[in-house]
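ok so dumb question maybe but i'm new to this and my supervisor (M.) told me to 'just get the structure for Phage protein' and walked off. so i did the thing. is this what she meant?? sequence i used:
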Amino acid sequence: MLDAGEFDMTNASYAQQPAAFLAMVQQFRADLAGLAAQCHGGSPASVPWICGDTTYAWKQEHGTQYEVV
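this is what came out, is it supposed to look like this??
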């Protein structure tokens, strides 16, 4: 089963995906700017990108392991 990221790599618009992903990560970090003091190192740039959809799908499929994580 392909997840969203793997599916992106199989379609004709893949060439646009890296730039779109980078823009999404940059927006994620910009949205955190007001919380910079709470971020590791005081900067949203240090916050790892987490895909909420992937996390949700993984939680649904691996509920027991998710609780450990």
